[in-house]
Amino acid sequence: MYSVPMIRKELVAASAEPLILSLLAKGESYGYAIIQEVKQRSGGKLQWTDGMLYPVLHRMERRGLIKARWGESETGRKRKYYSLKKDGKAAMTKHQEQWSLVHSVLAGLKKEQYV
Amino acid sequence: MFDLEKFITEWRQQMLAAGIHPTALEELDSHLREEIERQIQMIGNEQRAFELAAERVGHVTPLTAEFKKIETGNWNRPFAWVAWSMFVLSFFLPAMKGGWGWQCAGLSASVMVDFWRGNWMDIHLASLTLANLLMIFSPFLLWRWSRSPRSLRWLRLSFFAALVLVWSFILNLIAHEDGNELMVGCYVWGFSFLPLCLSTVKISKTHRTPLQHA
Q1: Residue of A nearest to B15 (CA)
Q2: Could you tell me the end-to-end alpha-carbon distance of chain A, in angstroms, rounded to an integer?
Q3: What is the ipTM of this complex?
């Protein structure tokens, strides 16, 4: 059976920020949940080294794209929740436009190949 | 018998020893525990669950390296320290005939006090104290505010304004034939604001998102 190969590291890295921003646009979330959702939505093809997500989140926080607050899980464990800021929404729109452009170019080229 | 808490404590100590900030460690700890719980539900073995979860969190060396990159901010440290050193040095050099750098700085500060008392004369000289204060606190300001592009832009603008202010003062003195009164300390002081401006321009390197280690 044909299976989609694991996504290249470079693409994983480049897509991290737009994915995080788009996930947070749905509402606040925390590191573990972000990783699980990305994994689930990509059918396990988009694999991150879990710990490496946090420097990305912290960098985005420093850049003013997202904000964080400490909260508690249902079991009382400390959790850091992230949510989108105004600049983050603008950055997300920009990312989405750029990725859509790349997608439309690729889709157009692919269509031509089958004509 | 496998003691999960003992292994987690050891893992935490390893992370702290490598230089992971305690706040970041709390987040990683929370992540590790959630992953352990998930693994236990899947495989039932606590020790194996811990090993798999720790592996998923990642090795301490690349993690520490990525966190360190964020802490350094976006300022150009060599330029900032050259600026600060030149500025401090200028205090101990003759700045004008009959006046050391620190005396001129003191004069500017005293004029500023007069300015606050309602004496609007010599506003240009008084405003140099603001430029000097900006320079004195520049390492702290850069360390604290250079991480966000927006605040870095404000810092860049402020440093540039200080440079313009300082050099308009020096050139004004030269133009009004006090130029031959100026001595080396004044020029060292004036030129120290140039590397200060450059300290907000980080030589760009290809940015690698840490997830690339995945």
Answers
A1: A51
A2: 26
A3: 0.86
Confidence of residue B72 (pLDDT cuts 50, 70, 90): low
Asked whether A21 and A65 are in contact (CB, 8 A), the reply is yes
Of B31, B58, B147, which is closest to A32 when you measure between CB atoms?
A: B31
Predicted TM-score (pTM) of the model is: 0.65
pLDDT class of B68 with cuts at 50, 70, 90:
confident
pLDDT category of residue B76 using cuts at 50, 70 and 90: confident
- Contact between B48 and B5 (Cβ < 8 Å): no
B211: nearest CB among A12, A62, A80: A12
Those residues with Cβ within 8 angstroms of residue B18's Cβ, 6 or more apart along the chain or in another chain = B60, B61, B63, B64
Nearest CA in chain B to A6: B214
Residue B209 in tokens: 């998102």
Spatial distance between the Cα atoms of B11 and A61, rounded to a whole number of angstroms: 26
Q: In the predicted model, what is the mean pLDDT of residues B109-126?
A: 70
Contact between A60 and A79 under an 8 Å Cβ cutoff? The reply is no
